[in-house]
Amino acid sequence: MDWLNAVVQGTLLGGLYALFAAGLSLIFGVMRLVNIGHGDLIVLAAYLGLTVTTATGMHPLFALIVVVPTMAVIGYVLQRGLLNQTLGDDLLPPLLVTFGLSVILQNGLLEIYSADPQKLEAGALETASFAVGGLNLGVLPVLTFAVAVAVIWGLQWTFYHTALGRAFRAVSDNQDIAQLMGLNRRHIFGVAMALALGVTAIAGILLGIRTSFDPSIGGGRLIFGFEAVIIGGLGNLWGTLAGGVILGVAQTVGAKIDPGWQVLSGHIAFLIILAIRPNGLFPRISA
Amino acid sequence: MPEPILQIQALDAHYGDFQALYGVDMEVSEGEVLAIIGSNGAGKTTLMRSITGLLSNGPSQIKYRSEDISGLRADEVAMRGLAMVPEGRQLFPSLSVRENLMIGAQVGRKGPWTLDEVYKLFPILDERKDQQSTSLSGGQQQMVAIGRALMANPDLILFDEISLGLAPIIIKDIYDALPGIIGEGMSAIIVEQDISKALSVSSRVYCLQEGRVSLEGASDTVSREDISRAYFGIE
């Protein structure tokens, strides 16, 4: 039963990792941009949540109403004002610029909020749980997983059933020809980044309710996100959810064997999958 | 002479240090079908890229309905009613046949061409509408590329080497369909290496040679000798 519990808790944790990863997966899929600053943007969203909740006394989940659009606007401006200029045939400039962005974000947050760990206060939601067949499930992890599934379903639906999704795929396929169809790729990229950071906002708030955070933890979240994307296969959003779950289960099962192995066993699972299936489990884009 | 829909004046084009076009002058009248011929590397595709805004141009080099479009982005040019069937078809591989056609309508221009009209023109596309565009034969892909450009309801449509890489029987089918396509008051530029095909559907012809216009004339009066001289540069 303990092992089953570890697997179930790991699956739920995987929902959070999938939320970390969904934004990364989306922007890589649309514009081949690897965003090194993604983890710090998640932390930025958590701090925005902190500011909103302390200023208004709102529940952190309601703060999403403010934080999601704010992050989306930041995403659009960031893409149009900065990241579009780095995109081209060379993969290096976007890596360097987003790395710089990561440094700036970390130090900016440190300057404004200090290095003290912070937490979003969600009251009873933090500890509420219910029993299912002998297992005790936390309401927050279950909610997180449900949100992850809903977000990924929503993104998938947007990609394959809307004009916007069609534009995303067309621009991703061939930028010049998409431009001939009247699509301004700079705008489309801006919208994609806005959507990605909207998802990042959700991830950041749920992270902040689940654990404490400080300005330095972005890098770790970025790694989990990357691993989930790579395990699932590039450009496949459901694969990203599967990747998050595999990573989460590997971590909780590892922690069950020895609490010190939690993070390590996640990395080992990632390494094994990368060795056996270099393109991930369900790749959509051939490398 | 009717108003020109497109006016090109002293157009130069460069790829880095390499100059591909030298002072090209060209005019397309409203409702006219113009052919551009020339050998490989003569600058035909470069000219198409300049007109559509995929290459940036100097000021006042290209005018569309007396508006200077030289400095516009490709999507802004497309919005004004200029569509292209690109060389090599270049469909979007991750879009279905239907989606490839729908994205052509993205510019939001009203006109005679709708999904149903394109299916009427090329019934095979209706049968294959949910397939990935890359699973079609070359000729069917060309139909999608033509349909995609028509969905924009353009006033001026550019066909870049539509017979390239297709079987002669397919080329014939597509050229047989052309009058029905261009008939609706549309102007067209047809870029071809196949000279007789180009002459048969056009009213005027330009020949490009090494980035310069080497011949300009009415399609039914230009002589074979003039063309081979202009085409190959043989004196």
Automatic annotation (TrEMBL), chain A:
It is found in: Cell membrane. The keyword Cell membrane applies. Keywords: Amino-acid transport, Cell membrane, Membrane, Transmembrane, Transmembrane helix, Transport. This is High-affinity branched-chain amino acid transport system permease protein LivH. Belongs to the binding-protein-dependent transport system permease family. LivHM subfamily. One of its GO terms (biological process) is amino acid transport. It holds the Pfam family BPD_transp_2. GO terms for molecular function: transmembrane transporter activity. The chain crosses the membrane at residues 12-34, 46-79, 91-110, 130-155, 188-209, 221-247, 259-276. It is a multi-pass membrane protein. The gene is livH_6. PANTHER family: AMINO ACID ABC TRANSPORTER PERMEASE PROTEIN (PTHR11795:SF445), BRANCHED-CHAIN AMINO ACID TRANSPORT SYSTEM PERMEASE PROTEIN LIVH (PTHR11795). Its main location: membrane. GO terms for cellular component: plasma membrane.
TrEMBL record, chain B:
Residues 6-235 form the ABC transporter domain. The keyword Chloroplast does not apply. GO terms for molecular function: ATP binding; ATP hydrolysis activity; branched-chain amino acid transmembrane transporter activity. GO terms for biological process: L-amino acid transport. Signal peptide: none annotated. The keyword DNA-binding does not apply. Keywords: Amino-acid transport, ATP-binding, Nucleotide-binding, Transport. Pfam families: ABC_tran (PF00005). Belongs to the ABC transporter superfamily. PANTHER family: HIGH-AFFINITY BRANCHED-CHAIN AMINO ACID TRANSPORT ATP-BINDING PROTEIN, HIGH-AFFINITY BRANCHED-CHAIN AMINO ACID TRANSPORT ATP-BINDING PROTEIN LIVF. This is High-affinity branched-chain amino acid transport ATP-binding protein LivF.
